Batch of 2 targets.
Target 1
Amino acid sequence: MSPARKGLALQEIVSTLQKYWADRGCLIHQPWDAEVGAGTMHPETFLRVLGPDPWKVAYVQPSRRPADGRYGENPNRVYKHQQLQVILKPPPADIQDVYLGSLVALGIDPAVHDVRFEEDNWESPTLGAWGIGWQVLLDGQEITQFTYFQQAGGIDLAPISGEITYGLERIGMYLQDVDDMFALEWAPGVTYGRVRKEEEYQLSRYSFELADVDLHRRLFEDALKEGWRLLDMRGAGGAKDRRTVLPAYDWVLKASHAFNVLDARGAISVSQRQGMILGIRKLACGIAQRYVGADTDTEPQTAKGDTPTAVKRA
Amino acid sequence: MPEFLLEIGVEEMPARWLPGLTEQMRQRFTELAQASLLVPERVQSFSTPRRLVVTGQVAARQADREEKVWGPAAKIAKDAAGNWTKAAEGFAKKSGVAVDQLQQAPRDPALPAELNLLHVKRTAGRNARDVLPAAIAALLRGLAFPKRMSWDAWLEDGKGTLPFGRPIRWLVALLDAQVVPLTIYEAQAAAKGRTIVESGDTTYGHRFLPPGAAGRAVRVRSFEDLRRHLEEQRVVLDPARREEIIQSQLAPMAGTGLSDFGLLAEWKHLVEWPTVMFGRIPEEFRRLPIEVLQTVLIHHQKYIPLGEDMHVTRFAALTNADRAAEAEIVRGMERVVVARLRDAAFFFAEDMKRPLADRVKDLAGVTFHQGLGSYEEKARRLVRLIDTMGERLGILTRGEMETAREAALVAKADLTTLMVREFPELQGVMGGIYLRAQGHPQANVAEAVRWHYHPVSIEEGSPPARVFSGGVPTGSSDPYGLRRAAQGAVRVLLDFWQAEETEKQPSLCKLTEAAVAGYGQAVKRPAADVVRDLESFLLDRLRYVFTARGFAADEVEAVLGAREPDALDDPREAWKRLQALHRVRLEATEDFEALAVAFKRAKNIIGDRPPAEVDTGLLQEGAERDLHHAVAELQPPAPGGGRQGRGVDGGYESRLRSLSSLRGPVDRFFDDVLVMAEDPRLRANRLGLLSQALSLFYRIADISKLGG
């Protein structure tokens, strides 16, 4: 362990935040076991923010963004980073103060830093989701995305949810005062580089050079097809089956990841991009509708059909 | 008069909204208080990211009001037996009084004997305290935000949920130190739930300062009290004062040719307690293109670059913090800047590995617009357009054509670079930088690429003139932001010719035709229709550009209304005509007013009739002959040949000056001569004479459009 280390190790940051939020009534969930681009895609966010039921949850989510891969050579940019995601539904009136308390728990005293909430709205075209909020800047460094969810799966949310997403590596680099992500201490004496650098190299290499484009195109198409097949299933009496949404949603995630790989591979033209994003969004919106039980019409849902509810924001 | 004070405490409101919201607070509150009969005075508003404040004097109580409500005529109010009729009873019932309490009075003062039933409705003024809650509720509802959010709030004003810009966390609402009650409830399943915010007399200061007393609840009694307590709690309420503080902290930098790059206007709305801090740019990054450094610092971090001789060496950053923490904060900021610059340096090195021209073929994979092909096709189309401009239209010299062709081909190639993918706002700019850095033999090509998206706003100056010696006057086919692009095209043409006096004039009509032809089969509608639509669109833009340059709307209309030559066919000449008209009209305001009136009249009579021959034998009246004489004198020397005033700046002016001498003859003509004479030959002759007079001006401006 380096004697110069002044902040928490990455794993200590995780356990500190998990304890902090558990103490405030959050259920501590686990990462979703599929490739996702952000903690928002975890069903504990995407599905739980729908409907009226209160929910408080926190979890770490390793997030894959193939196009951001840099073969482990860029100190700030990686194929896979880790988010710690908190959902507070509904958000308490003192949500900002509670969040700031978590920074104090990490050893960041806002009184001797410049902590700011700067306008930064969030939007996910693939999930038909958007929110209003801020990036939280710590001395000019974005350390958290703070969002009041307004819509998910094309559905207006009531109540809204507060989403707090910590960028764990960035917070760690700040606390440990290192300029290179790979020099971060994951555990005392063990660097982030030792844990992940080879993975970064191999996954970057795969996304940019080795990934089979045709296979991923097929995966993309097949994932959407399977998602719709599940969504179109009917139970006894011909009613729409509400108990297929969870596996159907897994296929949304798979389609989304295949899209990201193709994108990193440079295999998506600008004109294709729109259509593919729309394809994922239609399925995601269909799932959201079914999840809240809004699509009670008896017409079968097909991949060619329109989204049940108009998606208000692209 | 009692003082009213409202502070809406919010979670951080976007900085760019605050100027508008602050003004809305003042204006909307004034309107609402007026409508509530509270005669507001000295209303002021202030804001920080966490509060919107409005204060002013209002009446303690509304004035009592009397309203006369007239009923039926007295003679039908009672029947023959002297009993109240149904009509009278009905009116009393409607008025809510006993019929005996109604008065009788003459409704029309001129007819004192004709009496009507009268109910004088008296409304006692209500106390301001009772009226203000509804006004505050209406204010909360009426504020217009660029984007509103649901925060599950509910207002008890019959209108249900209360979306807002950001969640409201406290409300100070005081009338002379007394709380004006207002409650915001939580919305539950579209109904009223429990209380979220209740108005009071308690405010909150800076989130983190002063150390040890941060975020403390403070009770206030008046606006002055609020201002003073907030200042103690490290909040400067007045944006103008925050700007002064920022300016004074930046003052030591004034000598270094400081430009704020437009950031100061936003800075004062970013924080409650402005503290400017300064950071260093490490030596190794100072050689990055200055545009890249500025993009990282200005656009991404909102820092002001500082330095000399095109080298950024330091930056100024605004914080909401305490000076005591400066060293630690600056270290953090420098680290962020370095990380970004390191990325940029990586992109730059990677992009430099391939010549820009090599990337043109990659553009085949980048869609320009659905149905209009790729950027590669667009590049080829641009090259063909340049050829047309040179070979067919003759508005480019051979040398210019060579430069422009080359620039057009590579202009969009930087879209595939890492730098532009990361910093899209650098499109075009990076192309120019890479061409220069890769040692392109022709500096003009790099310059043309660098500027080819410009001008991007009406405020921005047109590209420097030297660009156009290389010439890429075609920025007009951007499918998005079409208006901006069309405006750009118009301005480029106007300024193009200021830079370079060339024999051939650029015609927007011919350029439009050529550009549309370049799309070939890709354009689904008949080309002539597209050209016509584009021309009317461009004419609109020309009108906008002229007006934006400060010319009166009627002068612009007059010039655009001239028939020969068409303004679009020769925008540069239209521009000269406009300036001439403006100047001469200033000298001879009265003459032009009179002429405008006369010509409006003339135009109403003759309509669009072309100028006809005048038979001098038919001229009867003196005024008629005088006008004919004056018109003949003023006929252009070589009618139909060449352009008036071409190349000579004063040409239009002197022409307009002599034309203004027509005022006398025209006025006399209208005074003395009956245009619509009974004899059809006389009438036709007089109409012909008038239209000749009008057509003298048509080559410069349609004078009848002046004066609205």
Target 2
Amino acid sequence: MLENRNRGALAQPAALVHPGESVEQALYEVRKKIYPRAVHGWFAAWRWALVWATQLVFYGLAWLDWNGRQAVLFEIVQRKFYIFGLVFWPQDIIYLTVLLVISALALFLFTAMAGRLWCGYACPQTVYTEIFMWVEEKIEGQRAARMRLDRESLSARKLALKAAKHAAWIAIALWTGFTFVGYFTPIRELGAAVLSAASPVAQGSALGPWESFWVLFYGFATYGNAGWMREQVCKYMCPYARFQSAMFDQDTLIIAYDRARGEPRGVRSRAADRASLALGDCVECGVCVQVCPTGIDIREGLQYECIGCAACIDGCDQVMDRVGYPRGLIRYSTTHAVERNLGHAQMLRRAFRPRVLVYSAILGAIVIAAAAALWLRVPLKVDVIRDRAAIAREIEGGNIENVYRLQIMNTSESARRFEISVEGLPGIALEGQSAVELAGASAREVPVKVRVPRGGLEPGAHRIVFVVRAPEAEKLAVREKSIFIIR
Amino acid sequence: MSEFTSSFWDFYIGVVTVVSIVACAVFLKMYSVRRVSGTQTETTGHTWDEDLGEYNSPLPRWWIWLFYITVVFALAYLVLYPGLGSYAGLLNWSQVKQLEEETARAESRYGPIYDRFAAQEVSALADDREALAIGQKLFLNHCAQCHASDGGGLRGFPNLTDRDWLYGGDPETIKTTIMEGRNGIMPPFGSELGAEGAKDLAHYVMSLSGMAADSIRVARGRPLFAQTCAACHGAEGKGNPLLGAPNLTDKIWLYGAGEETIIETIEKGRNNQMPAHKDLLTPAKVHLLTTYVVSLSRPGGTAGK
């Protein structure tokens, strides 16, 4: 594992030092800017498909309406979280927990199966870097042009290109920040507030200080991470890059260089006879290094910097096509498959190993349980709080009375009338208010009295059950346990 | 502002703080390079789990800038905010001031909601659902601990849902009760009356509300009542709302209706206190609370339906 974990230092040029001489060594390394060469191919197409899919959802979802409100809105002040037809209350935190558990298990499963799929295709860092690099290429040109531009001394042209690039980046970044905040503050109101804040004449609703801060904060984070930090985020900030090795094994799909086939590498003329060269298939064109967004050489084996984006596969395949060698010198494969020359069928058979089966089983069970729980979820919550100070009242006619507060929460979005009843003891009855009307997504605290004829009941605590139901909807009923005290 | 008796400590804290921050910056600078002798070692030399080595990998340089930023932040913070001994900071910020500002902001935000109701009579608000809803919340927060969530009271804590009032049930009186509190005192008469006298008196009191009572004791108790109780409870035992003396002719008993309880009350007296709420609640809130309490005993209606 040494190779996997600690490749960072090997990328350092070893200082040429004579024995016995003392030298000054920097403990902090300057980032060497990476100019990834644009790549096209099967995997790049997949990545772009995921860029489109994730960003259409992210930028678009905030603008959808549902029942006269924003379809997806996390209303923090009111503590109501709307996701299409569902309204989650803070009491539903269990669903968030379940979602996180599902995400974590899915991550384990996909990583055990196919390595850093998330990093390579769907992680926001990858996605935004991809978008920002596309902008960069459109404005500054290809890899060679960009490198030349950076070496040039400052000129009007350079200034114009750099300014255009950063302006475009900042525009995308601010729009991203705005969209993000739009999931917490209704996005149309936020848009109006931003417009009125930007216009010289103040009008309409003002942009709150927190909204401004978060729009700028997320904008800055997007700009900084996707424009400037890029692979530094993956190398130094992301914990996932560091603990992925715990989820990898010898049968995990990785981006692998087929050393046996490629070595010894070497440049060759196209006319040369391949058999007589005594060279492997690697033509040492350097494309796999040039396209790498983290600046590593995949031919040195699995490295923690490798985010599994498969850009080197696309690059190498194109070169192999051009020189007329079979594709797949760099390919998705497993450590075992490369070492032992396994075929696809064997790799697939090895994929179903205990850890994969266990992850799949747990993940499947939790997904099914969560779906069932969501499906059966009743949009009504009731808490019964017995009056603590009042033990029991004796009232005329030999009845005993206990007082309760019912916190009734209508978590649906339509106004409803709920009927309250109580059961569990002979002759038990509710005194006074027995129905309550609640507006959509609102809560009410209802004090109720419960009377029980003394009869032959023992002093002490007795179990009773409150039933709150909406008369028009049969399924809409909640039973909540409490106790009735007889002195 | 300083809690210390000597200004030495202000300087001491200030100097220690500034020196520590500056020292952080100096050490950062000093230790961002190091001298190594001869051939470079690529690993730190540590080995774990038999074969796990650690390369000496330098951190990225932007990382060290984060350290410097914290130093700059700390210094800027100390200039702007209190932190150096008794120095108040350029922004002149204090916790008390922040609390006052937040209170004022809340007052200006929520004040109008209450003011709207405060301008109306209690009787005019009797059917105002919003007023009653706010009143109910105030009641559940401030009153329900003793008077129960339904206002039905407990032993020693009056029932607010009947139409019997110790001090009177008109809105102004209820408001006074909430604002100023009440202290209902009945003096003990045990030593004066003796055990037999107390029992005679109790039977007379029981007869007032039509409970079964020993007629001989009732006859003996009648003059005792006139002599001992009538001053407060009235000659007919109808009570006196000015003193909070209960009506003894109805079936409502604050401490219970049994003979033993009545004797205990006569012999030992009662001292019952409702705390004043004028320091806890604004007049506008008391107004809404009164509206709710009045609605509790309104015929036919349960409040806040």
